[in-house]
Amino acid sequence: MSVFGPDNLPLGVFQYGDQSPRIGAALGDQVIDLTPLELSDTFAEPTLNAFLALGRPAWTSLRAALLELVRTGAVEPHLIPQSAVTMLLPIEVGDYVDFYASEQHATNLGRLFRPDAEPLLPNWKHLPVGYHGRAGTVVASGTDIVRPSGQRKAPDAAAPTYGPSQRLDIEVELGYVVGSPSALGQRVSVDDFREHVYGVVVLNDWSARDIQGWEYVPLGPFLGKSFATSISPWVVSLDALESAAVALPAQDPPVLPYLAGKNLVNYDITFEVRINGDLVSTPPYRDIYWSPAQMLAHMTVNGASVRTGDLYASGTVSGTEQNQLGSLIELTKAGREPITVHGKDYTFLQDGDEVTITAHAGDLGLGEVTGRITPAV
Amino acid sequence: MSVFGPDNLPLGVFQYGDQSPRIGAALGDQVIDLTPLELSDTFAEPTLNAFLALGRPAWTSLRAALLELVRTGAVEPHLIPQSAVTMLLPIEVGDYVDFYASEQHATNLGRLFRPDAEPLLPNWKHLPVGYHGRAGTVVASGTDIVRPSGQRKAPDAAAPTYGPSQRLDIEVELGYVVGSPSALGQRVSVDDFREHVYGVVVLNDWSARDIQGWEYVPLGPFLGKSFATSISPWVVSLDALESAAVALPAQDPPVLPYLAGKNLVNYDITFEVRINGDLVSTPPYRDIYWSPAQMLAHMTVNGASVRTGDLYASGTVSGTEQNQLGSLIELTKAGREPITVHGKDYTFLQDGDEVTITAHAGDLGLGEVTGRITPAV
Description:
The structure is a homodimer. In chain A, 16% of the residues lie in helices and 30% in strands. Chain A has helices at 49-52, 56-72, 103-113, 193-196, 209-215, 238-241, 292-300, 328-331, and strands at residues 11-16, 22-27, 30-33, 79-81, 85-88, 96-99, 130-133, 138-140, 145-146, 149-152, 161-164, 168-169, 172-178, 197-204, 207-208, 229-231, 236-237, 245-247, 265-267, 270-275, 278-281, 311-313, 339-341, 344-346, 354-361, 364-374. Chains A, B: GO terms for molecular function: fumarylacetoacetase activity; metal ion binding.
């Protein structure tokens, strides 16, 4: 279990005994049961969506009120150990969009998937490339991941075969949770990011590379991704994350005006990826090429609306160093150069393996997302 | 308004005066207000989802009961003219998946988007290629379509520009509405198609070809599609459609066992596409390469679950003849060979244009989906 400081107060949905699921805030290794504090009716709901729909002014005032109740100790009668509760999926997901915003990751994947071409495609520095994932298979941290089956074809094979994925992978990502909706036909400006986005989760976009490699032209990834996406249970607010904000790296070539802004930020977050407890990578978020405000502006530039509960993710976070790569396909050069886990050669996920991704921004914890692989059925 | 025979009884959500939205069945040019008939509590809901979640046995028995009430004339006190009601979005959409199941369309698009390569990619006859679309922008027939803006780049330009799409297009499709959910980690067999899918809608997958052409590598279509997808208001049940079922065309090479079945069907449906009232195309559905049962089996072969309200579409329906193509990009050879609409050369959609797609299977009407283009904002 993660430990959360008194200025963080991330929100999540917990179940305690046979009581109804409801909303709590994390404080240290405790959950604050928010319902009896009577701050908002929305805290009795089984997802954060009703709270998220209240919008920025309510988020800010409720956070201030809760910070004060923590400071005065008024929350103490309502603390429950995190070890005594089950954390559920915090949001009912509307649409799930996955971006591809790490230059290092896009370059690495380009080299692996298209070895005979320029790794970074011509559009990549002009727009945050993204696609829609499957919202209905976004699952709570701790949910077992059944090894997916499907079609895959070796480059030299005449025809595809069917069977369990042999190249099951992770993708280390940051997910952004939309609170306030936008209207159909209206763009969201980069300056309105904080009006629409409530906070972040740690996200593992499980990926079956063999399935993905065969299916993905020309319409993009589908079954190689859609079997499961795990998110951390505690949604950390942008307000709490503000101390981790850093300026966005310079973008060259300059972006079109709808993607430009004076106050574009990124977050100085570091992930830690463990397989069966062994640390295998520490991807850094701060140098991601596209800011989350640009992702939101791009996603709505065509008039597409966002809804409360929409989730959009950064894409795999990879740094420049070998021990900063956010997927096994990168860490192992597509399986050709195994890494070492618990003293043994390791390429892709094996049945029974447990992957845990934690994240923090200095002292600010973002919690963890975890999942264990179970055999194909 | 479409006219529906007494054996069809498609379901939709209507609003009459200032009464709450609720569920009705179409009969001729009337709506049967189902709530006072007390067949099911779910008919008082503002979407079909609760009814859909009841599953196949309930769908069948409720249809039998309604057919009998129509036969005896017991519905007559509950008829409201369709002209007096507003039809709303019939379902709350879970995930929206768009397939690419017409061989003729995939071949035509391959030639236009990748002129230097084989038009049909190597995976196309081994699996029904598909991708996730944006569920939150599936809109009711009649909703105005705001011309999307975004990035596009001419092949010979050095950099992309921003502005309203100049190549706004339609895609004529059939949409399948999922009723009964499936469990995460479990495959749905081709034989269980009718247990999970309730019925069909006519679907127009509006497409901005210039935006799509620039953005779509390597992760597939995104903003070129996500601004709007329109569906017809009346969901025609598979039971009603059964009279239109035809054997699936032979598939060569043979498909993998999870896609094979003895009773795979297609539907002998013909679309009529009108722009400002002028008939421009009549795409035939019957020769679509992949059956909807195969699409469902493929979509879940990796263990992805389906939810009540999920919508999956065939992809653009195009026949072999010039007057059977299901998109303007095909009808006009990417704008190079205009068609004639109301006596004038015509390539892509202009502001103010109204597109109406109707569909029928012999005497069985599927109704219509319509939308008018409004200027970019």
